[in-house]
Design goal:
heterodimer, A: alpha+beta, Uridine Diphospho-n-acetylenolpyruvylglucosamine Reductase, domain 2, Enolase-like, domain 1, five-stranded antiparallel β-sheet, four-stranded antiparallel β-sheet, B: alpha+beta, Ubiquitin-like (UB roll), DNA polymerase, domain 1, 2 domains, five-stranded mixed β-sheet, 5 strands, binds flavin-adenine dinucleotide, binds FE2/S2 (inorganic) cluster
Amino acid sequence: MIAFDYTRPASASEAIAIAAKQAHAKYLGGGTNLIDLMRETIEEPTALVDVSTLSNTIDVRDDRILIGAGVKNTAVAAHRAIRERYPMLARAILAGASAQIRNMASVGGNILQRTRCTYFYDDAAHCNKRWPGTGCDARDGFNRNHAILGASPACVATHPSDMCVALAALDATVHLRGVDGDRTMKLIDLHRLPGGRPDIETELRQGELITAVELPSLPSAARSTYRKVRDRSSYAFALVSVAAALDVDDAGHIRDVRLALGGIAHKPWRAFAAEAALRGTPATQPNFRDAAEIELKDAAGLRDNTFKIELAKRTIVATLSELNGRDRS
Amino acid sequence: MHFIINGQNHALDLDSRTSLLDLVRDHLLLTGTKKGCNQGACGACTVLVDGERINSCLALAVQYQDRTITTIEGLVSANALHPLQQAFIEHDGFQCGYCTPGQICSAIGMMAEMEHGVPSAITADLAGETVQLTHDELRERMSGNLCRCGAHNGIIQAIQDSFAEGGDFKTNYPKEAAE
Ligand SMILES: Cc1cc2nc3c(=O)[nH]c(=O)nc-3n(C[C@H](O)[C@H](O)[C@H](O)COP(=O)(O)OP(=O)(O)OC[C@H]3O[C@@H](n4cnc5c(N)ncnc54)[C@H](O)[C@@H]3O)c2cc1C
Ligand code: FES
Ligand code: FES
């Protein structure tokens, strides 16, 4: 790890001003990802601007909830309004990492955590994300954990966040502040697909700070959940995960559905095609399966991860069936 | 930099790269806290900060200035073992003992979380006010602490026993150190 200056500014504007003065500044949340990446010399900031004590509140209104970027993951999952109005978000967070890490990790840092691709971490490997233009050893290597949707010849890494999968399904908006002022962006537009430049992971501008995440009102999310499939039952990243909300009318037809997938792409994957196929149709297992087929139509497996295509389909069907069963009872 | 560790004030001049783990082990010679993986994957380095459990290996000391930190050494009072330490002995909650300080600090932090009604990934009713101290809940909540010797069953037994229904875990909480 190279040496760095540490500062803990008292406001977001001050944080942005400090970061703007440095060529290689990084914001610091809990540090659970960044410190690890600095030890691996993947990140080499010369200044750390600690923003973990800024934006530390959850503001609950009838029509939305605004979660400060500095709020710890545990605090989001434990918040009563989140548990009651957006259970998929509480469950997604609780399915991630360990209690210790959730106590440290911030909302902003969780969104911007980087891939766990082992070749990205291995400084003897070729990795276009780490050293653009060097190639991708994961493509023909051990790629059990890698992407099946939206990958490119340059990169097959996945985004590891559970929380972001729920945020994608919930239509969350991210509030940003930079030297040019404030703006908002849909969470699903923030992360990029790898294309030819997997080293550029988000649409954020240089020095832009995440200040909050906004959850819009979504009454149907009160019946929502998150299902994570992984190699051991706790403390492991997702092979496949599904965040879903299902709203079924008295006649058994789907009024609204929200669906997003994790562990399978370079970004949290909102399943728009499956949602469109499901709206207005009877909530039945065959229809869930058809929608899953549509969403995974373009999925492409690698040497070790082809099983994830079927696993994703089955996990979609199982998650929607679970919500449907709950709806009916 | 100033820290309150196990009830004592410490003022040190530290490189900003120093982790909280290296601070307690290498600078304060509190070697009870262990370094297993140094990357957040094992829980051996678990300490309590203002009563919350964290992995000290993924923490920079500079982030935790002026905070109240409790390590395994801070749990002993008047030379008597903490009840949870005693329970680990009685239930064979360890073999080599390397993960034990982290397990014990983690269990204390876990009980505070349960007291505050924090749910877990397997809590069926997220809207519920309280959480039951079941075997499965404890397994899930302690999953951030690995034991290479495979003493998990004894560990869960020890925790369940010492925090069992009726038992008041609040009194077991390291009060002196936390203040
Ligand atoms: C062993 C282990 C297992 C894990 N398992 C899981 C898992 O199963 N599921 C899962 O989802 N995650 C998992 N994680 C990842 C964990 O969720 C992340 O490390 C954590 O959420 C990052 O949050 P942080 O606040 O610590 O971020 P930091 O490490 O502080 O920062 C991460 C990045 O975000 C930037 N940043 C932070 N805050 C802001 C802000 N406000 N504005 C702009 N940029 C900002 C930083 O500059 C940095 O680039 C695991 C981590 C470990 C170590
Ligand atoms: S040493 Fe900190 S989690 Fe392993
Ligand atoms: S007792 Fe040996 S690692 Fe747990």
